[in-house]
Amino acid sequence: MIKKEDVFKIGQFAKPHGIKGEITLLTTSDVFDDSDDPFIVCEFEGILVPFFIEEYRYKSDSSILVKLENIDSELQAREFSNLEVYYALDAAVGDLVGDMTWDSFVGYVVLDTRLGILGPITMVDESTINVLLQVDYKGNEILIPAAEELILGVHHDKKLLEVALPDGLLDL
Predict the structure, then answer these.
(1) Among 57, 147, 163, 167, which residue's Cβ finds the most Cβ atoms within 10 Å?
(2) Of 17, 10, 7, 28, nearest in space to 66 by CA
(3) What's the CA gap between 59 and 25, in Å, rounded?
(4) What is the C-alpha separation between 87 and 22, in angstroms, rounded?
């Protein structure tokens, strides 16, 4: 059985494309390129279910047309519309920060190299060009820039985001 902690969100299905079962996946992830047998995971009625990808092709930088195995009609593909799409952590290759959506980090605990554990990420603000992580720090909500140069490491098994914050950032 697949558990929520074993996957990370890579995007969301939009609408079917054509009549042969293709559906548009809105994502900026390129995890399929590194896999010989790519698959995705979707949640149906509270259960995470894997689906193998028969073929895929890039439509743009942020959308991929995906044909899932055994999904052969527009009607079948429509069942996937608006579903969030996940990918297995153990199937991903390399450092995942670039492949994961920032929303995937909600629930991760932030660990600063100097200050220790700051607290869990409770929300991600992507409304501006600078993505911010909202962290529950000692009962107060603080905002931390989600800049990759501040991130030292990601420990998915522990749901831990290791950072090196600049001096004085928490004093603002």
Answers:
(1) 163
(2) 17
(3) 9
(4) 18
CB atoms within 10 A of CB 17: 17
pTM: 0.60
Q: Which amino acid is at 15?
A: K
User: Smallest Cα–Cα separation from 134: which of 126, 4, 156?
Assistant: 126
Structure tokens at 86: 């996940």
The 10s digit of each residue's pLDDT in 114-123 is 999 999 999 9
Look up residue 105 and give its two tokens.
Answer: 């980090």
The conformation of residue 165, written as its DSSP 8-state character, comes to P
Which pair of tokens denotes residue 22? 């293709």
Confidence of residue 95 (pLDDT cuts 50, 70, 90): very low
- Give yes or no for residue 43 having a pLDDT over 70: yes
Sheet architecture: strand order including 132-137: 140-145, 132-137, 116-125, 109-112, 160-163, 151-155
The burial of 26, by beta-carbon neighbours within 10 Å (0-12 exposed, 13-18 middle, 19 or more buried), is given as middle
